[in-house]
Write a structure and sequence with these properties.
Blueprint (H helix, E strand, L loop, with lengths): L5 H6 L10 E3 L4 E4 L4 E6 L2 E2 L7 E2 L2
Antiparallel strand pairs: 1-2, 2-3, 3-4, 3-5
């Protein structure tokens, strides 16, 4: 799956802050601006673990 379903994106929140996420299709990540983290999407599955996320500016 290359695109995140809109309903799925609405249901997902940042596990650290509870804030909404933005989908970055090019990098296949879900971005939490409030936590400054990017959660990876692997094989179409969002990995919503803080320990798996990368820090962003």
């Amino acid at each position: 799956m290359s695109d995140i379903n809109g309903k799925m994106l609405e249901a997902l929140i940042c596990p650290q802050t509870g804030a909404p996420l933005k989908y970055d299709a090019q990098r296949q990540e879900l971005i939490s601006k409030s936590a400054h983290l990017a959660y990876p999407i692997r094989d179409g599955i969002p990995i919503m673990l803080v320990g798996e996320a990368r820090e962003i500016d």
